[in-house]
Amino acid sequence: MLEEAGHRVIAVDLPGHGIDHTPLTEVNLKSYTDCLSAVLDKESEKVILIGHSMAGVVISQTAEYFPEKIEKLVYLCAFLPDNGQSLFDAFGIVDLGDDAPTAVYIDEAQTYIGLNDEAIYSHFYADCSEEDFQYAKSKLVKEPLIPSVTPVQVTEERFGSVPRVYIEGLRDKAIPIKLQRAMYAKMPCEQVITMDTDHSSFYSHPEELSVNLLSLA
């Protein structure tokens, strides 16, 4: 839909995700930022960089390295960490009570993050069609733990110089709306867009999401 509107779109498979089969034990936050930085390095124009969920951490740290390459950062139901804060640290900034997510588990060796099968639909794809849910579920992988416990190191001079937009999902159970709002209250964005959606609006409400993204271009 974005391409039909005249934009060029690059969807990135981070190491250990999608078609990239880098072993979990070899992946850290730098692996992610190196991958994304390599994409940015090839671009002659500034990009609008969108991070969903965990990738909010990745786009924040990458913006510290390449602020001159990024026109705008868009956090789509994403983690928005403060300097010195990891993804997991973000859960400590607000008491979620009964809304605390239950989909994620960490293996005994503390090497990867997995998902409890019975909670995947309700936490990530509650508004999706059965077809989209099954497709999305087939793409899920175990994620290395290290990137999620590594604090970001960002400065106001570099990361802070890039405009930020947050797109919140009111019915997100993976990153509950209470946590989303606590994060962007602590790390203010120039604009907040509200969608009455689950965690994965690119599957469940693609037309509405595309309209919102096009409004930022």
Automatic annotation (TrEMBL):
Name of the protein this chain belongs to: Pimeloyl-ACP methyl ester carboxylesterase
Domain of life: Bacteria
Entry's Gene Ontology molecular function annotations: methyl indole-3-acetate esterase activity; methyl jasmonate esterase activity
Pfam families listed in its UniProt record: Abhydrolase_6 (PF12697)
Domain AB hydrolase-1: 5-209
Originating species: Paenibacillus endophyticus
InterPro entries on file: AB_hydrolase_1 (IPR000073), AB_hydrolase_fold (IPR029058), MES/HNL (IPR045889)
